[in-house]
């Protein structure tokens, strides 16, 4: 399987420095995805729960474009601006993954972006 760039207008357009996702080796590698509304290009939501939900909505659209789905996610990296948001992020997370969740790790957002509370990257089966 050749390396394939994945793009959908149903998720926020990434900067020119990276792709929304790359499909290769039977997997889909979704870049860190912000809680950006694809229609407006603005961060959507003010709470960590809203922003986590928007990140996952964007990821679901990207995975669908790649022929995959959130049910096929195997690994996730959640990057938080504030570690105190961890419980609220988990609250929304459990709505998306109530059982058999993917492997997951966390990190601290290395840059301050006004209003941004979370970014999520995933690897899924293609």
Structure description:
- With 126 residues, this protein is an alpha+beta fold.
- It has one domain (4-125): 60s Ribosomal Protein L30, Chain: A (2-Layer Sandwich), CATH 3.30.1330.
- It is built from two helices and six strands.
- It has helices at residues 48-65, 86-96, and strands at residues 4-6, 21-24, 27-33, 73-80, 103-108, 118-125.
- Strands 1-2-3-6-4-5 form a six-stranded mixed β-sheet, covered by helices on one side.
- Strand 4, helix 2 (86-96) and strand 5 (103-108) form a beta-alpha-beta unit.
- Helix 1 (48-65) crosses helix 2 (86-96).
- The longest helix has 18 residues, at 48-65.
- It is globular, with a radius of gyration of 14 Å.
- It starts with a strand and ends with a strand.
- The mean pLDDT is 96.
Beta-strand content bin: 25-35%
Q: Given this structure, which CATH class is correct? A: Alpha Beta
The third-level CATH topology is: 60s Ribosomal Protein L30, Chain: A
Query: Which superfamily, in CATH terms, is the homologous superfamily?
Result: RutC-like
Structure keywords:
126 residues, 23% helix, 6 strands, 2 helices, single chain, 60s Ribosomal Protein L30, Chain: A, globular, six-stranded mixed beta sheet, alpha+beta
């Amino acid at each position: 399987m050749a390396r394939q760039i994945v793009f959908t207008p149903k998720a926020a357009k990434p900067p020119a420095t990276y792709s929304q996702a790359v499909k290769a080796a039977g997997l889909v590698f979704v870049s860190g995805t912000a809680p950006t509304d694809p229609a407006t290009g603005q961060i959507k939501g003010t709470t960590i729960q809203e922003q986590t939900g928007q990140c996952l909505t964007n990821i679901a659209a990207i995975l669908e474009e790649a022929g995959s789905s959130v049910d096929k996610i195997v690994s996730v990296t959640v990057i938080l601006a504030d570690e105190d948001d961890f419980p609220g992020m988990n609250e929304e997370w459990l709505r998306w993954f109530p059982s058999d969740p993917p492997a997951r790790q966390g990190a601290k957002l290395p840059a301050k972006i006004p209003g941004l509370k979370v970014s999520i990257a995933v690897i899924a089966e293609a």
